[in-house]
Structure formats: C-alpha cells, structure tokens
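Here is my example:
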Amino acid sequence: MQKQYENRLVIKLSQSSRRIVILCRGEAVEPQIEFDRPLVEFSPILPHSPADEKEFIVHNPCKFPVEIYNLEFDKIYLEEEKVRLLIEAKHILNIFLILHLFFHIGHILYCVSYLCTKHKAHKTIFKSI
C-alpha cells in the first residue's frame, strides 16, 4: 500500500526570531505480511513440560524484502540492550558521584564559613589556603 507523506520542518535559529520552514513531501510503501490463517492458538503448558509447537506460513506480498524477528531471540539486539543498560547505569553512577562530590564540597564550605564567622583566628588561616 503506497502512502503519501507531507510535513513541515521548522528550523529556529538561536538568537534570532527568524524561522525557516521546509516543506517535506514523499511517498512510501508500508511493509506488509500475510499469514495463512487469522489465528494461531497454543495449548497451555506447565513449567518444565515439553513446548507446544505450531507451524504457519508467513507471506510477503511486497516487492521488497521484509525482515521478521523476535527481540527475545535476537542475540545482537540482546547484546546491544545490555550495552545500552550498562552505559545508562554508568551515566547514573557518574551523576550520583558528582552530586555526592558537590554535597561534600558544600558541606566543607559551610563548615569553613561557619568557622570563619565564629573564630577570627581561623578566618586568617582559611584565607591563606
């Protein structure tokens, strides 16, 4: 099924009130797949029991290849997802460490300013550091 697309792309320039509008038009064919039957039903199974298997035919009516995959069994996707989660965890850890550092710096500065206001002798010591 061929579909027409049209959208306006608005570009805002920094430090300017001017906007640039680009009209984007195109057409595309939406990928489709067909099954030999409308419903595939599986029997209920218990844990550690034999799997229930069903066969069905998937047909591609398009003039171009269509890729079908299951993310649970796509090893490349699973590896990419692990890497993404590790990177995300690293960023969260870095943010936590930065906040932790700022907390300690703020605490130290508070103690220094408190000592400076309470004790004139400490004030000169902290100025020389």
Q: What stands out?
A: The chain has two helices and four strands.
